[in-house]
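Before the break, one more example. Copy the sequence into your notebook; we will annotate it together after we see the structure.
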Amino acid sequence: MTELTRFDDYLNDEGPAALVIREHLMPVEGEDGVLFPATFAPSKGFHSGYNIDTDATGKNVCLIDSVGSQANRIEPIFMQQKYAHLVPRVVVKAGDKEVNILEAGHRAGDALVRCSELQQELQQAFKAVLDGNAEPLAKIAPTSLVFGVWDSRDTQAKLPRLVASTIRAFNVRKLTRGAVYTPPLDYAALEVFSEEEKAKAEDDGKSPPAKRGFVQIIAPASHGGVIADGGIRRDATLGLAALRPLQAAGDRESTLALQRYILGLSLVALTTNTSSYIRQGCMLVLNPNEPREFAEVYPDGRRLPCSVTQDDALEFATEAAHAFGVGDERVVDFGKERAKRDVKESAKKGSKSKKSTDSNNKGAAEDE
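Here is what the structure looks like once it is written out:
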């Protein structure tokens, strides 16, 4: 067995369905420390704030960091010197600003990339995916195959997320906090504005004097974090069953080279030590009182210990990347005119769709 064939069992149908990591975390202050989950804007059926789901027994689960957020934290590691040789450096330049494709939220399907000089090449790569050939996309944006991508604004090509990670807290107690800002001077007394304007600003908190910090502002009962009585857990998976269908054009060896390459990147992403800093008020570390689980999970339910380390993953990924042939480095320009056309075409499609819907609704009403 060579380094290149070391993990071929993971690519066989008889191999594990997934690799699973389960880590128990805690705030740096201790197991009973306060941590601040992610907050979300209001939407249908959701009143904004923390995402806490409660079941009929009263137990709850609080989302600390979503699968998308975790992906956006992990993916940029491939910009670091230690891992940069594993992927092509693709940068989109807009004026004086340069953005690596690894920083684009929608990856190869992002508007930034779609409206760059890579537009046609990426379109062809996505069309190749629809035809069962993921190799062209792997030459441009291989992490799009690792963390998933959906070309929802064009070809509709979609690739599943192979590496998924989520942090949740269990049985949380929600806290609130208040805050008061008192300005160092009485600006109304200095005739910057009137007493009436001061009173209005302090009452509504939205008038210009309030927004600019000239009056006292009271913020009662705002989000104050949670205490996780049931612990905090990070669950991460590498879906090997979702990796095996990846194909390349040509012979079996081309497909095997592609699969090994994406497996190497996925193993690096899965085993990397993500930053303990999630957000302000949320710094998490491993809980030494709870064992870490790393398992190979088979289709029949068997769970066998997995011993792949970050060094193992990097060594294999380096060999697999060399054998596959990492794509070329690119620095391409963002096309303002392309973006304008993209927006206009979308508006036209939206208008046609609305007319069609209105027509169908009218017909349905007449039928009734």
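The chain has two domains: 8-170+229-336, 172-225. Residues 359-368 have pLDDT under 50 and may be disordered. Try to locate both features in your own notes.
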